[in-house]
Design brief:
Blueprint: H1 4-23, E1 27-31, E2 40-43, E3 70-75, E4 78-83, E5 87-94, E6 97-99, E7 118-121, H2 125-142
Helix pairs in contact: 1-2
Bound molecules: calcium ion.
Calcium ion binds next to loops.
Length: 143
């Protein structure tokens, strides 16, 4: 049976996590051409396969696989990969900013143009911190 204080702690962790997920929405825009030209695609969550064709009409129905030449990161820390399923990481993780040419040194670097096949936001520090805090609190309460 949970002690009252322990129950309150679990509740408090649950509510913090939920509210953080709402606040820390991630968002990146991928562009077909350099300097944010051509077709573009908004991504709000991990995308394991840009080659997947969405059965909808319009610009977003086209595959964005092996096309990305420039990127705008609005929120989050994003990792980009050469293959689907997050295999073959390209360059470094990119935080909020404008990247007019993916091969720039401050972007993904040489050889990364028209290569991205999957991408995902990095693990959020807030979740890591909350998980560790909860684990530590749990360990203490058992002493
Ligand atoms: Ca391109």
């Amino acid at each position: 049976m949970l002690a009252t204080s322990e129950f309150a702690m679990h509740r408090s962790n649950y509510h913090s996590k939920v509210s953080l997920e709402v606040i820390t929405m991630v968002h990146v825009i991928l562009f077909d051409d350099a300097d944010f030209g051509g077709a573009h695609k908004h991504v709000f969550r991990a995308e394991p396969n840009l080659n997947r064709r969405v059965p909808l009409e319009g610009a977003d129905s086209t595959s964005f696989n092996d096309r990305v030449s420039s990127i705008v990161v609005l929120e989050g820390q994003w990792e980009f990969f050469e293959d689907w399923g997050y295999q073959g990481k390209l360059g470094k993780t990119l935080g909020p900013g404008v990247y007019p040419w993916v091969e720039d040194a401050n972007a993904l670097g040489p050889g990364s143009n028209d290569k991205i096949s999957s991408l995902r936001p990095g693990q959020r520090l807030s979740e890591v911190d909350l998980g560790t805090a909860a684990a530590e609190a749990g360990a203490k309460s058992e002493v």
